[in-house]
Amino acid sequence: MTAKSSTNSTRLLTVGEVAKRSGVAVSALHFYESKGLIAGTRTAGNQRRYPALVLRTIAIIKVAQRTGIPLEVIKRALGRYPPNSKLTAAQWGEMSSAWREDLNARIRTLEALRDSLDNCIGCGCLSLEDCPLRNPEDVLGKDGAGARILEKEATAKHV
């Protein structure tokens, strides 16, 4: 089996070439393959080879990860198409629009959290009557005064 072919779409790359071209560590490529996100083949000498199209798949994975999309969601989206396939504009549109509402919801949540930070004095008590960040509507106040969340987290770490 040769590492290079006459057409770019059928050209096979070593794991090192894919890592270099994609900017992803070899260990991450192995992880992606173990999770079924990308697919490679093996040579007679048991060396991994990937079609050049895997670079597009890795680019999609990295963009999705940067937006906070979990790998399992990425895997489900990619699983609708053959491994290492060249997605059409329509397929990419379907995939990205499926993620759009989730991303918009997370953006709204982050904006609300950011805007709530102005009301927090950063005292760390976490049991203020009005703490929208960690104790909305003082639900922990019924258990008494003090930093309930911090106490629970500290206890859980030492158990």
Question: How would you describe this protein?
Answer:
48% of the residues lie in helices and 6% in strands. It has 159 residues and is mainly alpha-helical. The chain has a 3-stranded antiparallel β-sheet. A hairpin with a 5-residue loop joins strand 2 and strand 3. The termini are far apart. The N terminus is likely disordered. This is Redox-sensitive transcriptional activator SoxR. Keywords: 2Fe-2S, DNA-binding, Iron, Iron-sulfur, Metal-binding, Transcription, Transcription regulation.
CATH architecture of the largest domain: Orthogonal Bundle
Strand content: 5-15%
Using the coordinates above, name the CATH class of the largest domain: Mainly Alpha
> What's the helix count?
6
Helix proportion range: 40-55%
CATH topology of the largest domain: Multidrug-efflux Transporter Regulator, Chain: A, Domain 2
* Span of the ends, CA to CA: 55 Å
Which outline best applies? elongated
Number of DSSP E strands? 3
Which structural class do you get from the secondary structure elements? Answer: mainly alpha
Order of helices and strands: EHHEEHHHH
**What's the alpha carbon Rg, rounded to whole Å?**
23 Å
**Structural domain count:** 2
- Spatially, the strands of the biggest sheet line up as 1-3-2
Residue-averaged pLDDT, rounded? 80
Spans of at least 5 consecutive residues with low confidence: 1-7
In this structure, how is the largest beta sheet organized?
Answer: 3 strands, antiparallel
Domain HTH merR-type: 12-80
InterPro entries: DNA-bd_dom_put_sf, MerR-type_HTH_dom, MerR_fam, Redox-sen_tscrpt-act_SoxR, Tscrpt_reg_MerR_DNA-bd
Keywords: 2Fe-2S, DNA-binding, Iron, Iron-sulfur, Metal-binding, Transcription, Transcription regulation
Protein name: Redox-sensitive transcriptional activator SoxR
